[in-house]
From TrEMBL:
Belongs to the SHOC2 family. It comes from Aegilops tauschii subsp. strangulata. Residues 16-97 form the Disease resistance R13L4/SHOC-2-like LRR domain. This is Disease resistance R13L4/SHOC-2-like LRR domain-containing protein. The keyword Repeat applies. The keyword Repeat applies. InterPro entries: Leu-rich_rpt, Leu-rich_rpt_typical-subtyp, LRR_dom_sf, LRR_domain-containing, LRR_R13L4/SHOC2-like.
Length: 124
């Protein structure tokens, strides 16, 4: 499977075995009730797009930095108060959207994202 869309449901938890979907390129989890993403998410080495907007995420797993092929990360409209320092490991990241959270500080590792074209942090 290369694309998994679970948007607009009442999902609260993503199982750890999501890490077994090694061929996954697009994961869409918008408009659910997710508060935590499993560390196993970092095993999705082919993931290019991760959208988890309009949930109740409190934090991102440190393993998000292992997603070296990710081009788009959208975590807008959650309850994040920070982005993990490990995000600097997302070497291919071109677009990061984290609008509508409670982010107070941007990690210095953002400067490592040489491919980043768009950073949106409105409404934090």
């Amino acid at each position: 499977m290369q694309r998994l869309v679970l948007a607009g449901n009442l999902i609260e938890n993503i199982p750890a075995n999501i890490g077994y979907l090694r061929n996954l390129k697009i994961l869409t989890l918008d408009r659910n009730r997710i508060t935590v993403l499993p560390e196993e998410l970092g095993s999705l080495s082919n993931l290019q797009q991760l959208t988890v907007s309009q949930n109740s995420l409190l934090c991102l797993p440190k393993s998000v930095g292992d997603l070296c092929n990710m081009l788009l990360l959208n975590v807008s409209d959650n309850k994040l108060n920070a982005l993990p320092e490990s995000i600097g490991g997302c070497k291919s990241l071109e677009e990061l959207q984290a609008n509508g959270n409670a982010i107070e500080d941007v990690p210095s590792s953002i400067c490592n994202l040489a491919c980043l074209k768009s950073l949106s942090l409105n409404g934090n």
